[in-house]
Amino acid sequence: MRNVQERIIHAPAEIVGTLLNDFGGPDDRLWPSPPWPAAELDNGLEVGSRGGHDQIRYEVTEFEPGRRVRMSFDKSAGIDGYHELFVTPEGPDRCRLTHIVEGRTRGSAIFLWPAVVRWMHEAVVHDLLDNAELAATGRLAGAASTWSPWVKFLRRLKSMKPAPVRV
After folding, report:
1. Could you say which of 3.40.630.30, 3.30.2110.10, 3.30.70.20, 3.30.530.20 is the CATH number of the domain covering 2-159?
2. Average pLDDT over the chain, rounded to whole?
């Protein structure tokens, strides 16, 4: 499985790269939390740091400050692979921010990725790309990302908690 999301941002790569350097830390302006569960790394953004968001766990396996971070999934994720964020200069005042998930699903993830996880993943990454553009330029060139009816339904389903019943 391979999933690529990207956005051209009309700001220098160095500015977007500084945003990338704060991923998973207390000053993270990329990760859209709220409304999504926070992305956290136990030792900040450095190789060997472990963390994740919600039930997805990973470890930082590669980090080039201001350019790229790769996080390999923990075995519990059901994906043998990684996800990666990287910034590519496209000129002096323009860059591309790309997020890639690549791997092989196994176990229940074989069914969960196409039915649930892929859609939630794409929604959170689109929100992240909005955050990057807003933080780097102060505005969005296009309309803000919106969640599909399927993502809204899945989020509502996940937030439902059984109510205690008096016996």
Report:
1. 3.30.530.20
2. 93
